[in-house]
Amino acid sequence: MADANTRSAYPAVFQAMRGFSAAAAKAAAEAGIEPRLVELVKLRTSQINGCAYCLRLHAKDAAALGETPERLAVLAAWWESQYFTPKERAALQLTEQVTLISDHGKAVSRGIAVTDFLTEDEIEAVTWMTIVLNSWNRVAVSSHYPVGPTD
Q: Of 94, 39, 87, 88, nearest to 67 (Cα)?
């Protein structure tokens, strides 16, 4: 795909994405999803999609909320570590299922029963957050947003 700036020709669509994102954030807050877990969901989605722009953004946001370097370092293999709570593990499992939707039935089961650790509202909020991040990842990756060292 050619370089495309998704803000230029159709700014109303970009603004609608911002509204979509704000609505998902509000749902997460109303469901009681902790801000650090929101950032973990955003990071895991972005890891799967290979979105450098969103990875940099949300790693910085997670760190600002007190997320540790150790947990950020092992997030890509969360199921192989003991760093994450059962609730976080359930949210990350759900995030992978939603993000890898094209692999329906082939996505690796991490042995987590999502409904054992998340309420219906939390499941819905995590699902919406993941859908939003998948959308933002596609905006950033297809637009080739520059990602490099910053001062």
A: 39
